[in-house]
Design brief:
Layout lengths: L1 E5 L2 E5 L5 H7 L23 E4 L6 E2 L10 E3 L3 H14 L17 H9 L16 E2 L4 E3 L9 H9 L5 E4 L6 E4 L2 H6 L5 H5 L5 E3 L12 E6 L8 E6 L13 E6 L12 H5 L15 E2 L2 E2 L2 H12 L5 E4 L6 H14 L2 E3 L23 H6 L15 E5 L7 H13 L2 E6 L4 H4 L3 E4 L8 E4 L4 E5 L12 H6 L6 H13 L5 H4 L4 E2 L1
Parallel strand pairs: 1-5, 16-17, 16-18, 18-19, 19-20
Antiparallel strand pairs: 1-2, 3-4, 3-5, 6-7, 7-10, 8-9, 11-12, 12-13, 14-15, 14-20, 21-22, 22-23
The structure holds iron/sulfur cluster (2 copies) and FE2/S2 (inorganic) cluster (FES).
Length: 507
């Protein structure tokens, strides 16, 4: 450990860190553009300048290592003057078009200029102008707003190693260019550069002019796209304004930092899957009995009749459903002596580069593997009187789908718990409407056996209730109580949402 002083306050810090990293850990703000914890240090924007006692000039906090007994000043007059100067240079050619910029509200340049910048341009030379370009199907580039931090170039060089961007020209004419637009289109991680860009120079075509970010609410979720279980920040469209275009409730997925997981980036397949949660055409919002909408009372009466029929039963879990939902179904199977099965999840070949993408396209397959639930395709008899199938359509292989359909068709009491009308719901006597991802709190166990929590920011739509309520009435008060019971009984540890926190828990 080393003893240092920052702004006249003493701190004891670990060796081997830069001034910027130390300050970030201590919640001391140092403005920066080119620094990003997931990329190499470039030291080119000069926004992070700080004063270090004994040094003749200001030092870049992102590239200066802390030393024992160092005295650092992050907020002195000379530091503030330097920040003002850097911002003045950056803004020389900037169009200052924040009102029509999609980054507005989450733009570092906008924020720093409010804090340290000037409000008058002193240069008499005209601003250099560049056309806004759609550089790929997914991304547009606006050089007028670029601060030349090179985060985008470093991401494509260092993380995906696909090298689609570079800088061209010199001096004040320097700008970023895409040398391989086709490669960018095929790069499965390309859209991360729009998140990485600290200003509005790179953006997603799909998000352009769609929503002001301050009119969204953010929740943290686990991506259901594959078994990797990347952490997402989900922007929800909860505040309507008269000028809003007609967008669905889910506006955007971006990466939520988790050092134990995917760190800072997500794949494009996961990112753009948000639009699926806005499609409501096939949504099941009421119970259906023999294909006809029915009341909750009649649905419950059918369930009661099925469960008291004393017929043999089978429960098919789902790699798409949360730990809590699957556990409710497991409890039913245990209570009734029903057989328990799992479908085989859908697999997809990995794109290039794959990084952390997983082949198995379901977020909770690992739970069933951990509990050693037999595969539905290995089942010996498919004649059951009562069959309950959890929502898994779209995430399972054809042979599992065929087997489940045959189970449903043969059963006297066939029940599905489904988000949308599907082959399963259409072949069941009773179809119960299930909450979709983002409507219910729930946990998922990923390929490296990390249990993580996903937040149900949207809440249950009218008519939709959790499975545990259909099966057990008031026995459980919330999903967390199922998680705690599951972790005690099946994992031998006590978990709560607080314990799982943002990072998750490795099992
Ligand atoms: S486009 Fe954005 S990320 Fe790339 S150099 Fe310019 S400001 Fe930085
Ligand atoms: S790698 Fe998998 S979990 Fe991660 S963002 Fe992509 S689809 Fe989602
Ligand atoms: S953040 Fe240090 S020079 Fe850019």
């Amino acid at each position: 450990m080393m003893n240092i002083k920052i702004d006249n306050k003493e701190h004891s810090v670990e060796e081997g860190q830069t001034i910027l990293e130390v300050c970030r850990n201590l919640d001391i703000e140092i403005p920066h553009f080119c620094y990003h914890p997931g990329l190499s240090i470039a030291g080119n924007c000069r926004m992070c300048l700080v004063e270090v006692k004994g040094m003749p000039k200001l030092m870049t906090a992102c590239s200066t290592m802390v030393q024992d007994k160092m005295e650092i000043f992050t907020d002195s007059d000379v530091v503030k003057e330097a920040r003002k100067g850097v911002l003045e240079f950056i803004l020389l050619d900037h169009p200052v078009d924040c009102p029509i910029c999609d980054k507005s509200g989450e733009c570092d340049l906008q924020n720093y200029n409010f804090d340290y910048g000037i409000d008058q341009r002193r240069s008499i030379f005209p601003k250099e102008r560049h056309k806004v370009e759609k550089i790929s199907e997914k991304i547009y580039k606006n050089d007028n707003r670029c601060v030349l931090c090179t985060r985008c170039i470093r991401f494509l060089d260092e993380v995906t190693k696909t090298h689609e961007f570079t800088t061209i020209e010199r001096g004040s004419h320097t700008h970023i260019t895409c040398v391989d637009p086709e490669g960018l289109d095929q790069n499965p991680f390309a859209s991360n550069i729009a998140d990485l860009c600290p200003v509005g120079a790179l953006g997603l075509n799909e998000f352009r002019f769609k929503k002001r970010v301050w009119l969204t609410e953010h929740v943290r979720a686990v991506c259901p796209g594959c078994e990797a279980g990347c952490n997402l920040t989900v922007d929800l469209h909860t505040k309507q304004t008269p000028l809003d275009p007609n967008v669905g409730p889910v506006v955007r997925f971006t990466s939520a930092d988790n050092y134990s997981m995917q760190r800072f980036f997500i794949c494009d397949e996961g990112r753009y899957s948000y639009s699926g949660y806005n499609e409501t055409e096939r949504r099941l919002l009421h119970p259906e009995l023999d294909g006809e909408e029915t009341t909750n009372g009649k649905a419950k009466a059918f369930l009661k009749e099925a469960l008291s029929s004393e017929l043999t039963g089978a429960v098919v879990l789902s790699p798409l459903a949360s730990v809590e939902e699957n556990y409710a179904a497991i409890l039913l199977a245990e209570q009734m002596g029903y057989d328990l099965y799992r479908p085989s999840p859908f697999r997809k070949d990995l794109p290039e580069p794959a990084l952390f993408i997983e082949k198995i396209k379901a977020p909770n397959h690992r739970m069933m593997k951990l509990l050693e639930v037999p595969k539905v395709t290995d089942m010996e008899s498919s004649d059951y009187g009562v069959v309950l199938v959890l929502n898994s359509i779209g995430s399972i292989r054809d042979n599992s789908l065929v087997k489940i359909l045959s189970l449903l068709k043969r059963a006297k009491y066939s029940i599905t718990f489904e988000v949308e009308r599907s082959e399963f719901s259409e072949n069941s006597k009773l179809a119960l409407p299930a909450p979709m991802f983002l409507e219910e709190d729930g946990c998922f166990i990923n390929s490296s056996k990390r249990i993580q929590r996903s937040t149900g920011g949207l809440g249950y739509p009218e008519g939709v209730r959790p499975l545990w309520e259909w099966l057990f009435g008031n026995r459980f008060t919330n999903s967390e109580s199922l998680l705690t019971q599951f972790s005690n009984e099946k994992l031998g540890i006590e978990l709560s949402y607080e314990k799982i926190g943002k990072e998750g828990v490795e099992l």
